[in-house]
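Hi team,

As requested, here is the filled-out complex form for the nicotinamide-adenine-dinucleotide run. I kept the field names the same as last time so the parser does not choke. Let me know if anything looks off before we queue the next batch.

— J.
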Amino acid sequence: MGQFDNHVVIITGSGRGIGAEAAKQFAAEGAKVVINDLNPEPAQEVANAIKTAGGEALVVAGDVTASDFPERILSQTIKAYGKLNILVNNAGFTWDGMVHKMTDDQWEAILSVHATTPFRMIRAATPYLRDTAKAELESRQVPENRCIINVSSTSGLHGNIGQANYAFAKMGVVGLTKTIAKEWGAFGVRCNAVAFGFIDTRLTQSKEAGEVIEVAGTTVALGIPQKLIDTRNERSIPLNRPGSPKEAAAGILLMASPMASYITGHTLEVTGGMGI
Ligand SMILES: NC(=O)c1ccc[n+]([C@@H]2O[C@H](COP(=O)([O-])OP(=O)(O)OC[C@H]3O[C@@H](n4cnc5c(N)ncnc54)[C@H](O)[C@@H]3O)[C@@H](O)[C@H]2O)c1
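And here is what came back:
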C-alpha cells in the first residue's frame, strides 16, 4: 500500500531535476504519473524508469507555455486515467540579468513559464479538481485527496540579485496559491506552494558548464556564473549544504500527502533553513 494509491498526478517539467524525482517518488507510492517536459527524451527516460520499477506513467511532452498545452495535457490525462488528483506546477528555468539590462523578452518569458502557466493549468484543471470535488461533496461521497502544488523559490520570498523577473513570478505564485486555497477550499481542494532554496540541479550549476535551454526559438544559458559560486557562503544555510533533488521532491510529496489534509494556502520552505 502506497500513500498515493488510486491517485493521478500531473507534474510539469518532470524530465529532469526536482520534477523527475517527484515523479519517481509519487509512482513508488502508488500514483499514476503524467510526465511532461519540453524535451521528450528525458521525459520518456523517467517514464521508462517508473515502468521498470513496476509503476504507471504517461508522457505528454511539450512546452507548457503553449496556449493549447493545458487542455492537451488534461485531456490526455483524463483519456488515459479517467481523473486527476494532484497537479504539480514545476516546469521552469531561469534567465537572469541585472534589472537595468533585462529585456522585455527576458521578463515575459520567465513570467510566462513560472506564473501565467500555473494559472492556465489550474484553470484548465477546474472540471477535474474543483467541479468533481463539488459534485462529490453534494452527493455526500467520501472525498478524494485533491490538491495543487505550485513550485516557488527563496528568490520569490526574499528577492535575489539578477532575478527580478524570476522573483516577481515566484512571489506571484504564492499569491495565486493563497487565492486558489480560498476559492476552492470550500470544496476540499487544497493549494500549497513549495519554495526551494539551493537545490543541486542544472539551474544552480556553474554557467561555464554550458547548459542551455531552447525556448520559443531562443537559446538561454542556464546556471550561475562561477565567480558568484566561488563567493557563495553555504554557512548561510543552517544545514550547511545544498539540498538534493530527492530531498526537494520529498517536500512536494509532503504537501500533497493525505496527511496534509488540513494544510492549504501554505508555502513550505525546503531550504535547509536558508532565509530563516
Ligand atoms: N534548483 C534550485 O535550486 C531551485 C530553487 C528554487 C526553485 N526551483 C524551481 O524548481 C523547479 C524545477 O527546477 P529544477 O531545479 O529541477 O531544474 P531542472 O532544469 O533540473 O528541471 C526543470 C525541467 O523543466 C523543464 N522545462 C523548462 N521549461 C519548460 C517548458 N516551457 N515546458 C516544459 N518543460 C519545461 C526543463 O526542460 C527541465 O527538464 C523550477 O520551477 C525552478 O524554478 C529550483
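Two things worth flagging: The chain has a mean pLDDT of 96. The chain has one domain: 8-200+244-270.

Thanks,
J.
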